[in-house]
């Protein structure tokens, strides 16, 4: 909807940066909402200009989720805090098996944030929302004094509708299930690290930030009985699998040699001392499906632009319950733990 | 549910303060979620431990809203950031005419926040949620590095169901409508200012922070045809009325002599140079009702603990549209503008 060249709708000459008054409930906040947020996110629900959006739900189950985004830097190769805030919450809904419908947007702005920066982020949110076919229907703006925030933090909450009768959750995972992964891992975390450290890798790594609702919808409409899904954000593939093994009380085995990691990502991980299995992704997920549907599900994934590099990375058995075992490149087996301590602060 | 004496479930001796790793997606974040948030907010939806909550909606309209809370200080007379984060979002839903059902909770914690402080806030949220009969069903935690936040910011989004067929919005306001206010104004803002400035007023002022869903439900079940409601947060009574007059294209007249302001609040406003009409409240709202139901609505409000001091403060006519006129104590008429600039930063 917005070309890159669209001028910031708040005159930069008048308000080059965000002021405390932009969060004060008065004229300036009103202008910011009307001229920037409603202009960018405009849709019939948001245009009501009420404290909340009122909508008619279908008579089906709904999903509700929230995430705050504090990524640093705000802009990185392959995305920015705005696209991340939309795609991240869209993906949480998709992982519940829901079709994302509506997002809220809560901004915590630091006094002095350049208005142009905010506008760039807002445009990116609109583009990401259009791309994921969701509407931003309600919002809130707070401004904190200089030095008490860090540019901009964004919270998005999301509502989606569940169009099927599957119970997609760790408790639905069964021994015999096959684990599919939709592509190469480690790019988001390494893209952020490259920006932060000013590293010039041989080939620049871009974040995998993307909305997963389309590929999930493709799996569901192909009749795949998905048992569980999880997107591989903070803590990466390893933490997601450990969480599911523990919550579902099943045993998971995965094979390192079939987990795709791009060469430049592997190199960056080696230089910086990271294990790609623990690095955050923003467009990757694991999907637990019955063995009899594994080939079909893999074919569906591979025919989607976000699943071209999909692979079958492991399987589920019953014991030892709660444990994840990785067979390494050289054939050795090792227990995968949850990430301990902090690996990459403010990655999302 | 929680006595004041309940010990912080994260051993203070091990983790006296929040670490970056408490937001890292690994073991520590897992512990924080399990031991503190699930312990405090626990309910069947949250206990699913999935990325989002899935629920069966009634076949009716729903409302969806969000607010971030950045109030400083975190604790004040009459409330804290936790109770504010619950009541504020409950009130936004109530103002849509919705019965609040579910809240999300997104925490942005600053590295080094005392764990005991977080626990106190979390307990307060649970108590406020119980009091308002809502459940906190999904959440998220991010930790930012020391100096890049300010203790804790909380976002809550909320979902409510609309049990009636009224369209409660500025567009429904009609000439002839009567404007009701549920009690004295200015307490929340002055309670915060008193804490910040270390002022010792003769009688200590406590915030009016409270959930308004009960009193709204009482009005609706009495058959009051509510045309519009608005809670009087940032920007106070004046900004709320100006917003409604502009959005509904009606003319509003209010009478200063019948707007309740407590003596100590009036005194504090005079000392600090504030106009109570612009000071934030967290448990006050205006309600636009047809004239024929005004007495009945007032009686319903006064029979509710949050409406004991309710009064009829003005009325709606058709022109000049978009304008709010106040008749002052001495009989003079003045135009009420929206708050210009920032009066009380970080009041909520």
Structure characteristics:
homodimer; 348 residues; alpha+beta; 7-stranded mixed beta sheet; 4-stranded mixed beta sheet; 30% helix
Report on this model:
Two copies of one chain form a homodimer. With 348 residues, the first copy, chain A, is α+β, with helices and mostly antiparallel strands. Chain A contains nine helices and 14 strands. Chain A has helices at residues 27-41, 44-47, 81-95, 115-132, 187-197, 213-221, 236-248, 263-272, 294-302, and strands at residues 53-55, 62-69, 75-76, 79-80, 99-110, 135-144, 152-161, 178-181, 228-231, 251-255, 285-289, 311-317, 324-327, 333-335. A seven-stranded mixed sheet of chain A has the order 9-11-8-12-10-13-14, with helices on both faces. A four-stranded mixed sheet of chain A has the order 2-7-5-6. The first copy, chain A, has a two-stranded antiparallel ribbon with strand order 3-4. In chain A, α1 runs parallel beside α4 (115-132) and α3 (81-95) packs parallel to α4 (115-132). Chains A and B meet through α1, β1, β2, α3 and β5 of A and α1, β1, β2, α3 and β5 of B. β1 of chain A pairs antiparallel with β2 (62-69) of chain B.
């Amino acid at each position: 909807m917005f070309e890159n060249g669209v001028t910031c709708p708040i005159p930069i000459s008048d308000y080059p940066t965000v002021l405390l008054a932009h969060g004060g409930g008065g004229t300036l906040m009103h202008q910011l909402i009307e001229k920037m947020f409603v202009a960018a996110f405009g849709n019939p629900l948001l245009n009501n200009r009420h404290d909340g959006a009122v909508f008619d739900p279908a008579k089906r189950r709904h999903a509700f989720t929230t995430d705050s985004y504090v990524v640093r830097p705000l802009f990185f190769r392959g995305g920015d805090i705005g696209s991340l805030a939309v795609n991240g919450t869209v993906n949480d809904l998709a992982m519940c098996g829901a079709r994302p419908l509506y997002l809220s947007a809560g901004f915590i702005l630091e006094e002095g944030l350049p208005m142009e920066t905010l506008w760039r982020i807002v445009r990116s949110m609109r583009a990401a929302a259009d791309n994921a076919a969701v509407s931003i229907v309600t919002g809130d703006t707070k401004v904190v004094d200089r030095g008490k925030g860090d540019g901009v933090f964004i919270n998005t909450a999301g509502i989606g509708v569940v169009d099927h009768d599957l119970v997609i959750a760790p408790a639905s995972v069964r021994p015999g299930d096959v684990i599919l992964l939709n592509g190469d891992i480690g790019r988001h975390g390494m893209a952020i690290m490259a920006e932060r450290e000013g590293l010039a890798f041989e080939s620049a790594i871009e974040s995998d930030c993307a909305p997963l609702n389309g590929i999930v919808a493709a799996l569901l409409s192909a009749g795949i009985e998905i048992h569980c899904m999880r997107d591989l954000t903070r803590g990466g593939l390893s933490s997601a699998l450990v969480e599911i093994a523990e919550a579902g009380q099943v045993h998971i085995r995965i094979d390192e040699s079939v987990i795709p990691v791009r060469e430049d990502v592997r190199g960056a991980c080696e230089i910086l001392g990271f294990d790609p299995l623990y690095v955050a992704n923003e467009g990757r997920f694991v999907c637990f499906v019955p063995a009899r549907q594994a080939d079909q599900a893999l074919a569906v994934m591979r025919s989607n632009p976000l699943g071209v590099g999909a692979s079958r990375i492991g399987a589920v058995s019953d014991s030892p319950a709660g444990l994840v075992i990785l067979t390494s490149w050289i054939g050795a087996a090792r227990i995968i733990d949850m990430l301990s301590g902090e690996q990459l602060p403010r990655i999302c």
